[in-house]
């Protein structure tokens, strides 16, 4: 599915097997029909069991739950979850803002970085109905907006990127049995610069965390994760003026990884 931030609908596409992954248009889903006129989709996430689709609309402060028919890829409305003031989001956000919702590995909990606030929200998911119920609102430091988050494959640690220009990640421990967060701390991303963390990707079974920082001192960093305590150690820090890079790292919003590396 493809979100359209300027419309209350998103596009459904089907990947054709045996044709080199070619995509075929299969229709649109109009959130206005089940929500409001300003139900612009900010993020779309498929549940790990592929039975439900979750759509965050910051303008309507809602997460829409849609059931998926695997036979024809059609969607049907199930429910709407609202958490006032926390699911809100300004219309203009960094390009990576769609990476702010993610499931724990077993699919029992959905984590959301509050784009217009300083908090991580945890929702329990009913595997049978797909519906969500709020478990926790974990507030962070004041004056900082969270942009993106990711959770380790073992569901033990959560990392959050924000507009905090001090070059730090926010980190939490996560209890997959109860769906709760604790042990908030900050982790330095690099040794220089003062740009917001707008993109996070865990790699190689969560052994490494790739970090994109956007702004005048933008950079791309890779850190190694300690699986026991979630601490991170800087391995690579690529920025303008380092290793021959010139005027190309102001906004590393996305990247692709070599699957053979």
What would the keywords be for this entry?
48% strand; four-stranded antiparallel beta sheet; mainly beta
What's the short story on this structure?
With 261 residues, this protein is an all-beta fold.
How far from one another are the termini? 28 Å
Rg over CA atoms, rounded to whole Å, is 18 Å
Sketch the topology as an H/E string, one letter per element.
Answer: EEEEEEEEEEEEEEEEEEE
Major sheet: 4 strands, antiparallel
Based on DSSP secondary structure assignment, what is the total number of beta strands? 19
Q: How many alpha or pi helices?
A: 0
**What is the strand content?**
over 45%
- The average pLDDT is 80
State the shape.
Answer: globular
Low-confidence runs (pLDDT<50, min 5 residues)? 91-98
Range of helix content: under 10%
**Strand arrangement in the largest pleated sheet:** 4-5-6-7
Question: Structural class of the helix and strand makeup?
Answer: mainly beta
Structural commentary:
There is one protein chain. The chain has about 260 residues and is an all-beta fold. Helix content is about 0%, strand content about 50%. It is built from no helices and 19 strands. The strands form 5 sheets. A 4-stranded antiparallel β-sheet has the order 4-5-6-7, with no helix packed on it. The protein is globular, with a radius of gyration of 18 Å. The protein starts with a strand and ends in a 22-residue tail after the last strand.
């Amino acid at each position: 599915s493809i979100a359209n931030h300027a419309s209350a609908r998103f596009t459904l596409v089907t990947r054709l097997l045996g044709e080199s992954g070619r995509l075929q248009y299969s229709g649109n889903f109009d959130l206005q029909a089940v929500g409001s006129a300003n139900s612009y989709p900010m993020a779309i996430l498929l549940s790990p069991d592929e039975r439900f689709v979750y759509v965050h609309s910051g303008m309507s402060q809602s997460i829409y739950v849609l059931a998926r028919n695997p036979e024809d890829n059609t969607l049907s409305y199930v429910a709407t979850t609202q958490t006032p003031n926390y699911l809100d989001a300004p219309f203009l956000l960094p390009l990576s803002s769609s990476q702010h919702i993610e499931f724990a590995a077993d699919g029992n909990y959905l984590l959301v970085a509050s784009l217009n606030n300083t908090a991580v929200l945890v929702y329990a998911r009913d595997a049978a109905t797909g519906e969500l119920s709020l478990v926790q609102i974990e507030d962070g430091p004041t004056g900082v907006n969270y942009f993106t988050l990711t959770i380790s494959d073992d569901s033990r640690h959560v990392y959050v990127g924000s507009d905090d220009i001090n070059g730090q990640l926010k980190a939490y421990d996560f209890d997959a049995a109860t769906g709760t967060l604790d042990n908030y701390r900050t982790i330095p991303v690099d040794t220089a610069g003062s740009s917001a963390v707008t993109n996070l990707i865990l790699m190689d079974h969560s052994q490494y965390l790739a970090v994109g920082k956007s702004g005048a001192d933008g950079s791309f960093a890779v850190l190694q994760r300690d699986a026991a305590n979630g601490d991170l150690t800087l391995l690579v820090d690529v920025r303008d003026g380092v290793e021959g890079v010139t005027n190309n790292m102001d906004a590393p919003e996305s990247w692709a990884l070599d699957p053979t590396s």
